[in-house]
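Re-run with default settings, no changes from the original entry. Doing this only to confirm the output is reproducible before filing.
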Amino acid sequence: MNAEDPASRPLLLVDGANVVGSVPDGWWRDRRGAAERLRDRLAAAGGPADGPYPGPYEIVLVVEGRARGVASVPGVRVEEAPGSGDDLIAGLAREAAGRPCLVITADRELRRRVEEAGARCAGPRSLPAPADRER
């Protein structure tokens, strides 16, 4: 695998709304800001520390609703869902057929859908904690 080519790396799909919503830190007051903080945390960490695939990952953060407008940064591509973020994530997992794919979400129905497409799943806690929550 060529680590420089994103398409040759394992794909990490992050359900932005679900991950942001898993911590009651006031995210509902500024959904876009919360998504930007998650994006920056993903860029710094490069993915889960104990993921099922060796990194580095190609990281895709899926945002929807009032979190739209978050720009991509080096290391994290942001995809805006035109409707349901779950539908976009399931579609991206299907498109990754044959490529290692890990989806970060706690949504049971989304987990079922992406696992049917061959992806593996992990919960939001598999990602490194925000710096202000580390001990």
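Strands lie at 11-15, 58-63, 76-80, 101-104, 120-122. The radius of gyration is 14 Å.
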